[in-house]
Amino acid sequence: MAKLVLIRHGQSEWNALNLFNGWVDTKLSDKGIAQAKEAGQLLAEKGIQFDQAYTSVLTRAITTLHLALEEADQLWVPEVKSWRLNERHYGALQGLNKADAATKWGDEQVHQWRRSYDVLPPLLEEQSETMTIDGKSYPAMDRRYQDVPAGELPKGENLKVTLERVLPFWDSDISKALKDGKNVVIGAHGNSLRALVKHIEQISDEDIMGVEIANGQPWVYDLDENLNVVSKDILTPEA
């Protein structure tokens, strides 16, 4: 039996400002740093040991993973980064304030874009080196994506498309490590992790909309040799 631990990054600077973040590479807020460290402390208290770590190529997830592993005295654990674990791409919504978007398009429309399984947000019409969001370059032109075929880089995603993007990496890397009996930790994002949870727990398209993963709160799964869920535990600080 192998353990799989999912950790959503701590609060980001843009989470704190209520902005659509997506693929824009923001850092953790002070609160997010504290949440990441607390996640590691919770793992240390449970005595969970890891053999392999995975994360996205976005700073807030990488930093969260490192802070958590450091608190758990396991910063040495081998690590693989993949763009496939990136947050859902929010398309043309990225960089907008969520409340302002609701005022412009209506609460119901924004709710659909955020929470529906298969409704796409407004897509970016172009991707260029000069395109910026709040002073940050659009990431498709970033060097970290230079080996990704241009046709695979998204201009906007819903959860369904995010799952389709994440699954190839699950199949090629993560699932193989788990089947080899390795304990795995993934430091990633709310929607890329929700996509994995949907797949792991075989949650319906409708029910996954009610699943929320809190910042810096480890989800711990025990999986059998066929990667069926034997047990699940969400770690929270003792009151």
How would you sum up this structure, described in words?
With about 240 residues, this protein is an alpha/beta fold. It has a single domain (about 1-235), classed as Rossmann fold. The protein contains 7 helices and 8 strands, in the order E-H-H-E-H-E-H-H-E-E-H-E-H-E-E. Strands 3-2-6-1-7-8 form a 6-stranded mixed β-sheet. A two-stranded antiparallel sheet has the order 4-5. Strand 2, helix 3 (about 60-70) and strand 3 form a beta-alpha-beta unit. Helix 2 crosses helix 3 and helix 4 packs across helix 5. The radius of gyration is 17 Å and the shape is globular.
* Number of helices, counting only DSSP H or I runs of 4 residues or more: 7
Percent of residues in beta strands:
5-15%
Biggest sheet character: 6 strands, mixed
N- to C-terminal separation?
30 Å
Strand order of the largest sheet: 3-2-6-1-7-8
Whole-number tally of structural domains:
1
CATH architecture: 3-Layer(aba) Sandwich
Count of individual beta strands: 8
- The radius of gyration over CA amounts to 17 Å
CATH class value:
Alpha Beta
CATH topology: Rossmann fold
Order of helices and strands: EHHEHEHHEEHEHEE
CATH homologous superfamily caption: Phosphoglycerate mutase-like
Question: In terms of per-residue confidence, which ranges show pLDDT below 50 for 5 or more consecutive residues?
Answer: none
Secondary structural class: alpha/beta
Mean pLDDT: 91
